[in-house]
Amino acid sequence: MQDVKLFSGTSSHYLAESIADYYGYSLGKLDLQRFSDGEMQPVINESVRGMFVFFIQSTHAPSENLFELLLMIDAAKRASANYISAVIPYFGYARQDRKDKPRVPISAKLVANLLQAAGANRIMTMDLHADQIQGFFDIPVDHLKSEAIFMPYLEGNLNNNVVFACADVGGVKRARAYSKHFGRDLVICDKYRKKANEVEGITVIGDVKDREVILIDDIVDTAGTLGKAAQALIDKGAVKIRSICTHAVLSGKAIETIEASRIDEMIVTDSIPLKKQSPKIKVLSSAKLFAKAIRNTHEHRSIEALFVDK
Questions:
Q1: Cα–Cα 20 to 30 A to 270, which of 29, 216, 251, 254?
Q2: Residues with active-site annotation
Q3: Closest among 17, 68, 14 to 44, alpha carbons compared
């Protein structure tokens, strides 16, 4: 009998099915029952005693997605699972990783505490908003990089005049990885505010005249910054703008903002399901990457080989 089980939460079922297909197993049987007031009760409908259990669930809004994952982990722990891994393609609340003003929570640390208290033995995620969030955990964290998905796609889709850019200075390290890998120039978009709550301005550092620019970011939420960065690059002489963003949060009117912007194409992963299709948005699957990482974890092999520069 197999000693590994893959289960899906409701928010990531589309992705979990693809991961299971690549892995070669069917998803485990799990029902999410609800009381009349909406209270959740996950029920695992097969034995997990002594097994390696992987729960696949992104924790994007609403917060029920996170709480459902916590309940699934607790159910497996109480059913005597041997080893429980939370596979979280998009780790929600990661943007709140420090106190940037008085009297605010460090929510990413709280989520880490909750996952450990629920009974998770391991965390597997992709492109955390800040690498240091790994240090919030006292259990192993497999931090996968979306470069393993995007870089192979770009190999056959790069013109000679392409440069890479970050939408703000916080993304310099991420964009530099692409410019170094492909041997292209790096451009920085420096975001600033004239006054609090006023429209941001963008300063472009680098030469983009007659160049195609690929903007690199980890999260696209409202798409406001990306749209402004794209316009600033066009104003500086860029001829085409593409964007790579790992996690397509796309809240509010983000898709409409992208369609109205100077961005020609946005490439994202399926860590979060798209709320609406758009001709400008292309989705690449992360299923194969996660399936390989899950297999290597289960077989006690290194996941180092899954990183592009290795």
A1: 29
A2: 191
A3: 68
